[in-house]
Amino acid sequence: MLNRRHIRIKVMQSLYMMQQSNSENIQVGEKFLNNSIEDVQDLYLLVLTTLVEVRKKEEEYISIAQKKHLATSAERNPNKRLIENSVLLLLENSISITSKLEEKKLTQWSVYDNYITMLLEEIKESDIYKSYMAKSSVTFEDDRDFVVDIFTEIIAPNEKIYSFFEDYKLTWLDDLPVINTLIQKQLKKLKERDTQVFVPKIFKDEEDADFATNLYRKTILNFQELFREFEDKTPNWDADRIAEIDTIILRMAICEMLKFNSIPVKVTINEYLEIAKEYSTPKSSIFINGVLDGISKAYAEEGRLNKVGKGLL
């Protein structure tokens, strides 16, 4: 679920939180990091189950309409294609999903079901819905394509849903693009023979989990020492002029160079340049690139880059 860049962003956010709060309690920052990482799976489940809740809401509306004393012919004999969609039913009946929802006690959509109502209304007003409902018959592929399209075109870019998640947990704002892309890919890969939709693991493997913890610990435990590594390498920049987030990025990058011997220097520099472009000032990536390039060359000459494997320098 989380790639290495997103792990680096999570660590950066935790270090920034520690610096902003002037906290010296390393465990507080690590708890923030672990919660922030764990919350990514909560977000995944909540985003994915908007599809399930939309189906349930439509089923509820149909049931109520059919019981009306003066129900119309259309209400008594509704088109049930949406609630009978095989992909939506697959999501709803997947034990992997339902068990995780129960384990994490995620009941937000029962409280904030107005968002589900809003999504259902937008879906039913769309050409995607009208075209799907007008088909004389549908295959599994039609069902899947419909779900992919409403997720991609209506749910994922919905500004009200975006605002809801941002207000609910601030760190989710950075996680949403990753989660939306993951879910879209999952939906596209579904086959008619599938009986489950599995909830992805937070980390690809144990190595990535260790990377998150070790990057945080090694950076914060050497916070001042890492600052001194670049303090005199920025003659045209007073310490007060360097953006706070840039100093954290530089510390993390230098920490990787010196203390993570299996990560190539070029990978480290490129990753943090991309993070700087997204999270810091417009000129930050140029500044950071210059500092890291100069430092890496100096380290190589001094023999301080203890990298294992070919091509890691």
From TrEMBL:
Residues 201-297 form the NusB/RsmB/TIM44 domain. Transmembrane segments: none annotated. GO terms for biological process: DNA-templated transcription termination; transcription antitermination. It comes from the Bacteria. The keyword Magnesium does not apply. The keyword Amino-acid biosynthesis does not apply. Keywords: RNA-binding, Transcription, Transcription antitermination, Transcription regulation. Belongs to the NusB family. This is Transcription antitermination factor NusB. It comes from Myroides albus. The gene is nusB.
